[in-house]
Write a structure and sequence with these properties.
single chain; alpha+beta; two-stranded antiparallel sheet
């Protein structure tokens, strides 16, 4: 169809803080964080509400270990996606989604959700491509 989409990265900007997907250490210590249009008392809650499928209390520690960091550092970043439109020099925020709202963007979930056992998740199930055996 010849469609082209311009994309941009938030790397090196305050965007993720403005849209409540990155958090400072001070916010983390305050235990009063806004994410996905609600207040979280503890950033460790992100690991069980951000589409991971894991609901065990050990999930934050497992996810942090999988990425080679500690729980406080791991939970200072959360998933989110936003879309914008530029019209006559004005930027309009047209859409944002967080946590499980991102599932539709991750193509594998659409297939897994239709499988006989669905995602069949009991804990962290994903691995980086070079960790599969």
């Amino acid at each position: 169809m010849g469609w082209r989409f311009t994309s941009a990265s938030s790397h090196g900007s305050d965007f993720n803080y403005d849209f409540n997907t990155s958090f400072t250490e001070e916010q983390q210590r305050s235990r009063n964080v806004d994410y996905n249009y609600s207040k979280l008392g503890n950033l460790s809650d992100l690991a069980t509400t951000s589409g991971s499928g894991a609901s065990s209390q050990g999930a934050p520690a497992e996810f942090a270990a999988m990425t080679g960091t500690d729980i406080p550092t791991y939970t200072r970043e959360a998933p989110g996606m936003s879309a914008f439109a530029l019209s006559d020099g004005v930027v309009y925020h047209t859409y944002s989604t967080y946590a499980r709202g991102l599932d539709a963007l991750w193509g594998m979930y659409q297939w897994l959700d239709r499988a006989p056992k669905g995602r069949n998740e009991t804990g962290p199930w994903f691995r980086r491509h070079d960790e599969y055996k």
